[in-house]
Amino acid sequence: MLNTALIGCGRISHKHIEAFAKNAARMHLVAVCDPKEDRADAKSNEYLSAMIAVRAADPAVASRAPAVYADYRRMLEEIHPDIVTVATESGYHPRIAIDCLNAGAHVICEKPLALSIKDADAMIAAAKANGRKLALCFQNRFNAPVQRAREALEAGRFGKMLHGMIQVRWNRNEGYYSQAPWRGTWALDGGTLMNQCTHGIDLLQWMMGEDAVRVQAATRRYMRPIEAEDFGAAIIEFASGAVGIVEGTADVYPTNLNETLSLFGTKGTVVIGGLATNKIETWRFADAAEVGDTEDRVLNPSDKDPPSVYGYGHADLFADVLDSIETGSELLVSGEKGKKALEIILAIYKSQKTGLPVDLPCDFSTAEMEGYFA
Ligand SMILES: NC(=O)c1ccc[n+]([C@@H]2O[C@H](COP(=O)([O-])OP(=O)(O)OC[C@H]3O[C@@H](n4cnc5c(N)ncnc54)[C@H](O)[C@@H]3O)[C@@H](O)[C@H]2O)c1
Question: Could you tell me which residues are beta bridge partners of residue 106?
Answer without folding.
Answer: 83
